[in-house]
Design a protein that fits this description.
Length: 376
């Protein structure tokens, strides 16, 4: 982030050399950027992180992260809480822990299908106002895929849309479900996407929508994206209808850079992009807000695995290991994040230790040992 800002600062100060100090101060006030998921100032002291192992393969992959963190002597320690998808609500002590620590690492939580049971994943996002979901889908060297040069960041609005949960049965056999979208949340996610693109030297932001049918709701989303785009002239902006987006993703994914989407579309787009780039088992991500961040496997499809994977202990820990590297960078420990990412990528590139979803037969523990042996 600093290398991008410094030349710009020098340029501004040169242009302002004849300006009064108050004018320079005004520039700093006007151009101050809002907080994004990017690293925030830290003092380097060890940090407490709330840990939710979750359901299914969750305890396996979160356990893998704990082992690797210990092996690299990362300056974090975990407060572990048992939370399961069949609970009525997220326990208050867990919410309090995340509010206190600001950061959480989470395994998958199973969401019951139907029956009126609320998703704990959605509860967490709403309770902590984790308004942005970020999933990075990219090719890993040594892992063959149908497409090359894929490096897509899907940024999804995380609190509104079809996930608002506002539905009821009007009369028996007739259910009404509301898709709620507001100007505030649409502008907030659009600004987040452009800010992320700017800070990470990305070239293009694509808004995914269905405004040709949902003219008011998705029209509001597009209006917000267009307004924010005018403030970032150095970043190319375009729009694509969600059904065409899916077709373009599976035929020419390298055309996409940063994608910003409403809630439901983002879930579908992120999982599609993850499948194209190598599978959900290797894609990192997180849910972030103004004050808190929850890091987890980026793409949600099958994130709790199946019983056979759990019994054989062959769950893929790569996605959560890369998500924990994102977490380390968020906590202002970039050297540890780089070490972890490098070690994971070396293991994937060598190809000797891969779980079943990547074409191998390794156990979770064998992958962990391989990663720890690659730590510099």
């Amino acid at each position: 982030m600093a290398w991008r800002s410094l030349p710009r600062l020098r340029h501004i100060l040169r242009e302002s050399s004849g300006s009064s100090p108050s004018r320079i101060g005004l520039w700093f006030t006007e151009s101050r950027r809002s907080v994004t998921y990017m690293p925030r100032p830290g003092d380097g002291a060890p940090r407490a992180v709330t840990l939710i192992p979750g359901d299914g393969i969750g305890p396996l992959v979160t356990g893998a992260v704990q082992q690797v963190m210990e092996a690299m002597h990362a300056p974090v320690f975990f407060e572990t809480y048992e939370v399961h998808g069949d609970m009525a609500t997220v326990p208050q002590e867990v919410i309090d822990s995340i509010r206190r620590n600001k950061v959480c690492l989470k395994g998958g939580l199973k969401t019951p299908v139907g029956g009126g049971v609320s998703s704990l994943n959605v509860q967490l996002r709403k309770e902590l106002d984790l308004y942005a979901s970020l999933v990075n889908c990219f090719n890993l060297p040594g892992l063959p895929t149908r497409h090359e040069n894929v490096d897509i960041v899907v940024i999804r609005e995380n609190t509104e849309g079809e996930y608002s949960g506002l539905e009821h049965e009007v009369v028996p056999g007739v259910v009404e479900s509301l898709k709620v979208m507001t100007k505030f949340c649409s502008e907030r996610i659009a600004k987040y996407a452009f800010e992320y693109a700017y800070l990470n030297n990305r070239k293009k932001v694509t808004a995914v929508h269905k405004a040709n049918i949902m003219k008011l709701a998705d029209g509001l989303f597009l209006e917000s994206c267009r307004e924010v785009a005018t403030k970032y002239p150095g970043i190319k902006y375009n729009e694509i209808i969600v059904d065409n987006c899916c077709m373009q993703l599976v035929s020419k994914p390298e055309q996409f850079d940063v994608m910003v989407t409403p809630n439901l579309y983002g879930n579908l787009v992120a999982n599609t992009a993850a499948g194209i780039a190598g599978g959900t088992g290797v894609m990192p991500g997180g849910n972030v807000g103004q004050d808190h961040a929850v890091f987890e496997q980026g793409a949600s499809a099958g994130n709790v695995g199946n019983e056979k994977l759990v019994e054989q202990k062959k769950a893929n820990p790569v996605a959560l290991l890369l998500s924990s590297a994102m977490m380390l960078r968020h906590l202002q420990f970039p050297s540890f994040a780089d070490r972890l990412e490098t070690a994971v990528k070396r293991v994937i590139a060598e190809g000797n230790y891969r779980t079943k979803d990547l074409g191998g037969s390794s156990t979770t523990q064998e992958v962990v040992h391989a990663v720890t042996s690659q730590l510099d």
